[in-house]
Amino acid sequence: MINETFITKYRPISLEEVIGHKNIVKSLQELFKDISKLPHSFIFISDSGRGKTSLSRIIGNKLGCIDSNIIEIDAGVVTGVEAMRELLSGLKYGGIGLNPNKLVIIDEIHRLSTNSFDALLKTLEEPPPHVYFCLCTTDGSKISEAIKTRCH
Question: pLDDT tens digit string along 60-81?
Fold first, then answer.
């Protein structure tokens, strides 16, 4: 088992440092050429350990988010609708510092409850202008088409 320190020490911090995901990197580079057209939600579906969270954090860096403006949630632990509603209600406020952008990374999103998915769906349809989402999962079959169609 690889320890967490190794993973975080060698995690890529830019798209140029990402190895093995040429099509995804190229797609993200194209999207960031015109930030005004950047989608507010992304979904990454792949096996465990393939870089979903790393790519999400890179998106946060490209958006100019500082660490305190990146909210990372493990949906394997936080599954309930009340926790999701609390999170979403706090997103109406801009981020800390000069850059108002916030990035919400929801890891293992397929483990959210149905009611949590419903609460999230409304925000994905009409996100605040300063909020971006990266939804990460190892089981894309458990994500509703309604969620998938609102993500890049």
Answer: 999 999 999 999 999 988 878 8
> Cβ distance 111 to 138 under 8 Å?
no
Distance CA 94, CA 110 (A): 27
Whether 38 has a pLDDT exceeding 80, the answer reads yes
Which residues contact residue 106 at a Cβ distance below 8 angstroms, ignoring those fewer than 6 apart?
73, 75, 112, 120, 133, 134, 135, 136
Beta bridge partners of 76: none
SS (H, E, C) 131-151: EEEEEEECCHHHCCHHHHCCC
Question: What pTM did the predictor assign?
Answer: 0.91
Task: Judge contact between 12 and 58, C-beta under 8 A.
Answer: yes
